[in-house]
Specification:
Blueprint: H1 2-16, H2 28-34, H3 49-59, H4 66-81, E1 84-85, H5 96-102, E2 104-105, H6 107-119, E3 125-130, E4 140-147, E5 150-154, H7 164-170, E6 182-185, E7 191-192, H8 196-202, E8 208-211, H9 213-226, E9 233-240, E10 249-254, E11 259-264, E12 276-281, E13 286-290, E14 296-299, E15 306-311
Parallel strand pairs: 1-2, 9-15
Antiparallel strand pairs: 3-4, 3-6, 4-5, 6-8, 7-8, 9-12, 10-11, 10-13, 13-14
Helix pairs in contact: 5-6, 7-9
Length: about 325
């Protein structure tokens, strides 16, 4: 009976593909890996297609391209499902049906639901994530959709690809740290989602993935350039440890003591993700100092788009 059911579901997915103008745009190996599977990551397997096929195909019936359909689904998925991000979720990796029932979900649950929604309209999709950010505690999972011959980053409730804060954070990653490598969950991938030694030590599920770190570092560099930070300028992010109720302004100055960039240091009232953001030219000698003081420390640029500093007062 299981074989018959699986074959029926597979056939249903193939037949439904004819309903969308973009159905034959992706190569067959991409469709096999990122449209037909019901499972996205390590969530409990479920048959989500009958439910999601009632929700999302009608939403995109006026869309003529996969790009248009993916953005329309992503922008409206929270409103049409009632699901939203919450730290009160029951578990982090809810499947699509659990997310629809429980509403409170993590970024992983959001990504799984969005991937399934995209697959329900024959858009190849997969989950992508980083295990540890470089500058703050925590991690993140998002989705990718196969659009115009390449993977595009898309998030729950976002109206465009390449969410700015994620691109900014990716630009801060240290690719030499295995926990800061970006991984895409993908059947047939050459690596595991978790670094193998860590997965074995923590008894974590080791599903297949692809390493897409370099792809995202290129995306991040492009984003920094488009955000107004040219190649000859480095973004300097500064955290104050420990944070205080009030904090002074910090400045980057040149050899002539001219202020190049300045901003207030983080305080206890600021979100943990808030860091002071300054810009420093890659050429010349520059120093960091507190506003109103004469003491300063020389800053050396690095090749990365972003340099993270932590200072104590």
């Amino acid at each position: 009976m299981r074989f018959i059911l699986t074959a029926f579901l597979f056939l249903s997915a193939v037949l439904s593909a004819a309903d969308f103008p973009w159905s034959q745009a992706a190569p067959e190996h991409i469709r096999q890996a990122a449209v037909l599977p019901d499972r996205v990551m390590d969530e409990t397997p479920c048959n989500w297609r009958p439910i999601l096929s009632q929700i999302f195909p009608p939403m995109v019936k006026q869309c003529r391209t996969a790009r248009e359909a993916a953005l329309h689904i992503a922008a409206n998925i929270g409103a049409v499902t009632g699901a939203y991000y919450s730290t009160e979720r029951r578990k982090h990796n809810m499947n699509a049906l659990e997310a629809l029932a429980e509403k409170k979900i993590s970024c992983t649950g959001q990504s799984i639901l969005l991937v399934c929604a995209l697959r329900s309209v024959d858009i190849p999709a997969r989950a992508v994530g980083v295990h540890t950010w470089n500058h703050i505690e925590g991690n993140h999972t998002w989705a990718e959709a196969w659009i115009d011959g390449e993977w595009q980053m898309i998030e729950f409730n976002e109206h465009d690809f390449n969410t700015p804060w994620v691109m900014e954070y990716v630009g801060m990653l240290n690719p030499l740290n295995p926990f800061q490598r970006v991984r895409a969950a993908m059947p047939g991938g050459a690596i595991s989602w978790w670094p193998r030694e860590f997965a074995a030590r923590k008894n974590l599920p080791n599903f297949q993935a692809e390493d897409v770190t370099e792809h995202y570092l290129i995306k991040a560099r492009r984003w920094y350039t488009h955000a107004g930070i040219p190649e000859n300028t480095q973004r300097i992010l500064i955290d104050l440890q420990p944070r205080q109720a009030e904090a002074p302004v910090v400045e980057i100055v040149d050899e002539m003591d001219r202020v190049i960039s300045s901003g207030r240091l983080p305080t206890l009232r600021d979100d943990v993700r808030y860091l002071t953001r300054l810009n420093m030219p890659r050429e010349g000698t520059h120093y960091l100092r507190l506003q109103g003081t004469e003491e300063r420390a020389e800053l050396a640029p690095s090749p990365a788009p972003v340099q993270i500093l932590r200072i104590e007062l």
